[in-house]
Predict the 3D structure of the following.
Amino acid sequence: MEFDINPYNFRLASQMWLQLIGLLAAISLVLSLVLAVARNGVGAGLKLFRDGLSGYLSDLANFSVRRVSALTRLTLLEAIRRRALYVFVMFAILLMFAGWFITDSNERPELQVSVHVTFLLTAISWLILPAVIFLSCWALPEDIRIRSLHTVVTKPARRLEIVVGRMAGLSIVTVIGLLVMGAIGLFWLNRRIPENAQAALECRVPQFGGLYFIDANGAPGVQGLNVGDVWAYRSHIEGNSRARAVWLFQDVDESALSPSADGDGQELLLECRFEAFRTIKGSETSIRQGISAQYTLTRNPREDAFGMLAVSEPLRPLSEALREGQYRIGANEARTLAERIRTAPDELRAGDYFALFNGAGSAATFLDTLELESLTAVSALFSAVSVSAQQAVQLLQQKENGARVEVPYEELADAVTALGDGLDEQADVMTEALPRIDVPLPSFHVAEYHDNEDDSTNLTRIPRTLQVKSPNSEMLARYLSGLLEEWNADGRLVSAGAVDAELTNELVSEMAISRLNAERLTAVLEAQLADGALVVDGDSTLKIADGSKWYSFMDRLIRAQELVSDDPDGWVVEKDLINDLLDSNGNLRVEVACMNSQMYLGMARPDLFIRKADQPFWKGYWKAILNIALMLMLVIVLGVTVSCIVKGPVALFFTLTFFLVGQFFHEFMVRKLAGVEEGMGTVESAILIAQHRNPQVGMDVSEATMSAVRAADGALEGVLWVFNAIVPDFTTFSRASAFVENRFDVPFYDVVIPAVMAFLGFMVPCVLIAGALLKFRELEAK
Amino acid sequence: MSEAVIEIRNLSKIYRDFWGRKKVQAVKSLSMDVEKGEVFGLLGPNGSGKTTTLKMLLGLLFPTSGEMKILGRPASDVSKNERIGYLPEESYLYRFLNADETLDFYGRLFNMSVADRAKRADELIEMVGLGRARRRQLKEYSKGMTRRIGLAQALINDPDLVLLDEPTSGLDPLGTREMKDLIKQLKSQGKTVVLCSHQLADVQDVCDRIAVLFQGELKVLGRVDELLEVRDETLIRTPSLSAEVQAEVKAVLDKHNISDAEFTRPTADLEQLFLRTVRESGERPGRRFSTEEVAASSAASET
């Protein structure tokens, strides 16, 4: 069961529903007309059809809630007085003795919770289900058999109202039953789950993200390595290499944070469940500890902008330089590439040109999304390269197909050269506009064997305010230049023509910079002032003598080892998770690396999620109960509908079939129709079995028979399509239970609402059909 | 000209099996009217089509051909039921309800208000004499009681047209008499009553007009008094005559060549005897009546 489900698309669902209902209505009307004419002749048939339709519409128009409520009340009284509620007694007995059958997995609190919740929810649904199917399939046929319905239909009650009344009455009985059972069950859970596992009785609220991989060469891709598993659900990254799994969590804001465990401030919780794959056994300690992994929170616009270029080998040096922020080196790489295109264009394959088109295009698009005026020039240059490369790709394709065309390599080379020149020119602008922040977190061990551990080992708590020790030069330069620029503007750096004597103390007290580092910074400023690299501008501000920006100035100092810290902890830069680490679209990027060489970590999209503040268990529990209620109500609707036309036992058979197919085979039908499911058609399979042949060999029949068999299978698939459309997917309703059983909160919009809509989607046509079936049925036919 | 409450024209009903093959034709080209304010009897042996006709009128069955109008509306129109009361052959009511709940339930189906339902239920329970049993579930009722509550539910909406299928079946003579009195009472209120019955005596007592069906065909239709009138006999009813007076009367008849005149004492019918016994037993409990007393009492009631 996957808990990272696709978002519910209300518009698309409604559209499909309307189309299906329209089709169904049209088919029903045409079929009724044809039947009426066939049985009664044209004149009488048309009149019958017209009268029937107008009578039905008039029933709809005269629908009375009071009459329906009378029938609802009748059903309720019937259920109570006929002892249908004995099912609760069975439930109570089952719970009393449940302890005998539930394995006590003492060491795993979350398993204990899972086992109990699964048992409870399964017991609730499967105990009520038979009663519900029986009542719904038997109520109307029994009324007709003993003729008590005669006294009702000879009153002004419309048959549609009788159907609705029956459905509503049974639904209310069911809901009341569920509420009672749910309440007893919750009480039982709280009592039954041992003290040490009570804390696991919670609803985790996950926020899933998108996943892509960066391979050991730094090239991005949608998949990582396959370690040889045929059913590769997880992709792997190599340990101790540049390979990374990168999760992008969209629209992260303060709501993603939880209150800190110590009650002071906020923190971000990351929960993972990675798979470890070892190529060597490792030492015993290493087996016990598991493989090390490390999260790095990064804000990396350069990766977003230029990562796609790395897909192609010849473009990789350019991509690398740009991603490192070395724009001047990047400019040279661009010129080299241009030269290569100009002189030996055939050395590059079509795929490389495509990567250039795609990579430059995505760079242009990304730079545009930043909406910075300073970047428009560079963006235009990337765009020009992309357009030119696209043209080259198209012509190359035509050429491959035999067309005699000239590929304008020269033009493309010019565009790339222009890009190189542009990068040179705009290097400073880009440096400022595309800052990269890396916050590596302490490494942790991935639990490979869960026997003696609980999930908390895979839970990482990240404080909102991050202390980055020994940051890389770019981060340090940005931090210090930002600080100095701001203080300089406020006139706090200079006093009486020299560096302010109080600067060190102020840095220590206000910015939490250690005294050793503050002293070093003050000393460097004084030295630069003495050297003339800095000059006092006016009374109270400093100016960089060569006119460069503060960032470049600090970057130069850091590279010149002027700011090497005397503090054993090195420089510490403080970053705010929300304000500093989210990109301009509110996305949080988390990179995962495997630390041990010769080891691999396997991951799939739902394997890492942000765990938002937990919800109380009862919230998810009642949502699951609501979904069970919707499922049972749908069974009632189906049962009553079928029972309008056939007798009790037949109705029971049909309803049970609908339920079982919808619960256990719906996904199979969908997959079969989508062509995803392996295997042949029904007839072909039957022949293969009879002939003792396998699907690879195929049938031993003539061409003509083969076509006939395929045609028959095609027709059967049409039948399957109809089944697929009319049999409800009951897993829509059981999904909520799976969430709760696995201690996840039930997403309201993506799980509860689809269930409500699925119920309504089937309920409305069923009510209309049932009303029609009962209306046009003779209650006394012999 | 009187107003037709029910108009039936060329009504036919063929029962078919699952495959659409004809099994039996229950009603054949039936045409007749029921006038407003009359008590109309549908007679016929079992399988003659009278219940089928009634059920087609109610919309429980659909005619194979022909037309029916009830109170001016087609039989398939549910809104006609607003003014109809129907008592089925056996009272097929919900046995888990008590009398009050039953009437309340059917009252709701007529969209009656709470106050109206309560008032009407009191009246009807009083009328059918179920005051003591109104809180008992119907499954505890005797057949007669079930019949009474069935009748009460048929009248819950104060209908203009009452359709009664075998109204006296299962009732004791007292109940039968009350039912017949009630039918007469309904007639006196200007309501139209249509009943199906095998109990010919009952039909004769209450019906204005009858139709006799046989194998789905209408055989006889007309006023009861006209149909039953014996045109070649005269009945003279006097107080008991002495032997002398009888001889004198005989002489007069002989003079006119009437030789087959018959002098007998009239006998009361069993229904009358039963009703009287029950009435008098109530007045003098614990006594058994001698034949003489019964005869004297019959004479008294005759005079």
Residues 109-145 of chain A form the longest helix (37 residues). The CA atoms of residues 309 and 315 of chain A lie 6 Å apart. Chain A touches chain B through 34 residues (CB under 8 Å). Confidence is low (pLDDT under 50) at residues 452-456 of chain A.
